[in-house]
Amino acid sequence: MTKRHLHETHPDILKRLKRAEGHLRSVTAMIEEGRACIDIAQQLHAVEKAIAQAKKTLIQDHIDHCLEAAAMATPRQQQSAIAEFKEITKYL
């Protein structure tokens, strides 16, 4: 299990995810109400964009901050950070 940490961008990421959650609830309601497909597609697009931006921000933040810290760490910590970096890049 990795240690818990918080970055400056995490509150922004949380806001984006909560916005996406709201959009997703809207999509569910719209489908249940029998709304037009174009309206549903527009809301789904908003969900996708919010989640994609949250992911992009998270990964960029990791690259900017966690790898900087790893560059100053001991060799063992550097190896761990590099392995973590390789792991997170599969989500790009």
Structure description:
There is one protein chain. The chain has 92 residues and is mostly helical. The chain contains 3 helices and no strands. It has one domain: Metal-sensitive repressor, helix protomer (Methane Monooxygenase Hydroxylase, Chain G, domain 1, Up-down Bundle). The chain has helices at 10-33, 37-71, 75-89. The radius of gyration is 18 Å and the shape is elongated. The chain starts with 9 loop residues before the first helix and ends with a helix. The mean pLDDT is 85.
CATH architecture: Up-down Bundle
CATH secondary-structure class: Mainly Alpha
Secondary structure: number of strands: 0
What is the makeup of the main sheet? none
> What is the structural class?
mainly alpha
Return the average pLDDT rounded to an integer: 85
Q: Uncertain segments of ≥5 residues (pLDDT<50)? A: none
Total domains: 1
Q: First CA to last CA: what distance?
A: 22 Å
H/I helix tally: 3
Q: Tell me what portion of residues adopts beta-strand conformation.
A: under 5%
Rg estimate, integer Å: 18 Å
Coarse morphology: elongated
Query: Which H/E pattern describes the elements?
Result: HHH
Q: Could you say what the CATH topology is called?
A: Methane Monooxygenase Hydroxylase, Chain G, domain 1
CATH superfamily grouping: Metal-sensitive repressor, helix protomer
User: Fraction of residues in helices?
Assistant: over 70%
